[in-house]
Write a structure and sequence with these properties.
Number of helices of chain A: 8
Strand order of the largest sheet of chain B: 1-4
CATH architecture of the largest domain in chain B: Alpha-Beta Complex
Number of domains of chain A: 2
Helix content of chain B: 40-55%
CATH superfamily of the largest domain in chain B: Nitrile hydratase alpha /Thiocyanate hydrolase gamma
Strand content of chain A: 15-25%
Number of domains of chain B: 2
Radius of gyration of chain B: 20 Å
Helix content of chain A: 25-40%
CATH topology of the largest domain in chain A: Cyclin A, domain 1
Structural class of chain B: mainly alpha
CATH superfamily of the largest domain in chain A: Nitrile hydratase, beta subunit
Order of helices and strands of chain B: HHHHHEEHHHHEEHHH
CATH class of the largest domain in chain A: Mainly Alpha
Number of strands of chain B: 4
Distance between the termini of chain A: 25 Å
Oligomer: heterodimer
Radius of gyration of chain A: 20 Å
CATH architecture of the largest domain in chain A: Orthogonal Bundle
Shape of chain A: globular
Number of helices of chain B: 12
CATH class of the largest domain in chain B: Alpha Beta
Strand order of the largest sheet of chain A: 4-3-2-1-5
Distance between the termini of chain B: 51 Å
Largest sheet of chain A: 5 strands, antiparallel
């Protein structure tokens, strides 16, 4: 969706301000939110693109003013309610009012290490890759109302395939519960001038990782 | 009205704390999560996973040409072979800085970051200024970090729009001939592995 989360190339947000000696968490609740998200992911309650999609659907003023972990918490509440793991009444009460829904597994102390291991996103390909390194491609000019990983600044642009990453679960399908719908994934590199016009820095190149449905031959 | 603002600020914070506590209570009572496992996850990110993981990889690449070649060919496999505390998963790509090319990593759509190599991302990496400007004005972003590259160094920005994670292999500083991997690792900063900084100079760690 064309939301405020898709920030590449926007102006007006100001300077980047690194924080000296930044702590891992700025408050204890941030760590709890992160850990709950990991635990629910391990349990199989939802996949990462469903969490991203829930954040993207936050009202723009909320998205822009909430902190990173506040957004995570809001997205988690959204997925819990939408997917029937908890009721809005339970979240408001701060207690369970009905029994839980069955989950595949539970993250307990003996399996924390496995719980923190990143899963693989490789999936079995049903067709061979349409593109190879060196191919010129054009990204499609698409504006789906649902989750996509093709950023606005890189739509309708001509670039070159640089890396072929294999066949991966397709976020656009996963986020709307249409399964993995495996697709080939490529790193596509663009000249700065293709993205930003003649005033772009001449030596700049920018790449995205693009799923095959985002691309057509150029 | 300064007092009023202060009041709003603190009540907002406690509202978040209460809301997160309610969330944890509900999920625990419903049997989905184990609070002791949450403690262990928090402790892992506070104490075990951090930029020292990536620094070890970079220092090894600087001192072992065979490892560097393997890292650039297949970073997931090369890092797996080192036996890291936290497995890196399947989708790590290392990109090499040279005198003519400087790499910088961003995620414009959310905040994708190589956690297993660098730990959790700093606030600035997740912020709107960085996410919006890195792909359009990387030299301006570098200036915010006090970094000025030579005019003839080209910049390549990698937007992490899928599950591939990128690690910048910075250039080994001069004057470090004969240094051990452990000593070299002290030069490798987090930001040098994101591409918003450069490694420390030898005299900075003496």
């Amino acid at each position: 969706m064309d939301g405020v989360h898709d920030m590449g190339g926007m102006d007006g947000f100001g300077k980047v301000e690194p924080e000296p000696n930044e702590p891992v968490f700025h408050a204890a609740w941030e760590g709890r939110v992160l850990a709950m998200q990991r635990a629910m992911g391990y349990a199989g309650a939802w996949q990462i693109d469903m969490a991203r999609s829930a954040q993207e659907r936050l009202p723009p003023p909320v998205y822009l003013t909430a902190s990173y972990y506040q957004r995570w918490a809001l997205a988690m509440e959204c997925n819990l309610v939408e997917r029937g793991y908890a009721g809005a009444d339970e979240l408001a009460a701060g207690h369970a009012l009905q029994p839980g829904k069955p989950l595949n597994r539970k993250l307990t102390t003996d399996v924390v290490k496995q719980g923190l291991t990143r899963g693989s996103f490789y999936r079995q390909a049903s067709a061979s890759a349409r593109f190879k390194a060196g191919d010129r491609v054009r990204t499609k000019n698409i504006h789906p109302a649902t989750h996509t990983r093709l950023p606005r600044y890189a739509r309708g642009k001509v670039g070159v395939v640089e890396l072929v990453h294999g066949c991966h679960a397709f976020p656009d399908a996963v986020a709307v519960d249409k399964g993995d719908d495996p697709q080939w994934l490529y790193t596509v590199v663009f000249d700065g001038t293709e993205l930003w016009g003649p005033d772009a820095e001449a030596s700049l190149t920018v790449s995205i990782d693009a799923f095959e449905p985002y691309l057509e031959p150029a | 009205m300064a007092g009023h603002d202060d009041h709003d600020h603190s009540s907002e914070l406690s509202e978040t704390q209460l809301r997160v506590r309610a969330l944890e209570t509900v999920l625990t009572e419903k049997g989905y999560i184990d609070p002791a496992a949450l403690d262990a996850i928090v402790e892992t990110y506070e104490r075990k996973v951090g930029p020292h993981n990536g620094a070890r990889v970079v220092a090894k690449a600087w001192s072992d040409p065979g490892f560097k070649q393997a890292l650039l060919a297949d970073a997931s496999e090369a890092v797996r072979a080192l036996g890291h505390e936290n497995r890196v998963g399947d989708h790590l790509v290392a990109v090499e800085n040279t005198p003519s090319l400087h790499n910088m990593i961003v995620c414009t759509l959310c905040s994708c970051y190589p956690w297993e190599m660098l730990g959790l991302p700093p606030v600035w990496y997740k912020s709107a200024p960085y996410r919006s400007r890195a792909v359009k004005d990387p030299r301006g972003v570098l200036a915010d970090f006090g970094v000025a590259l030579p005019k003839d160094t080209a910049i390549r920005v990698w937007d992490s729009t899928a599950e591939t994670r990128f690690l910048v292999l910075p250039m080994r500083p001069g004057g470090t001939e004969g240094w051990s991997e452990t000593r070299l690792a002290q030069l490798v900063t987090r930001d040098s592995m994101i591409g918003t900084g450069l490694p420390k100079r030898p005299e900075e760690v003496a």
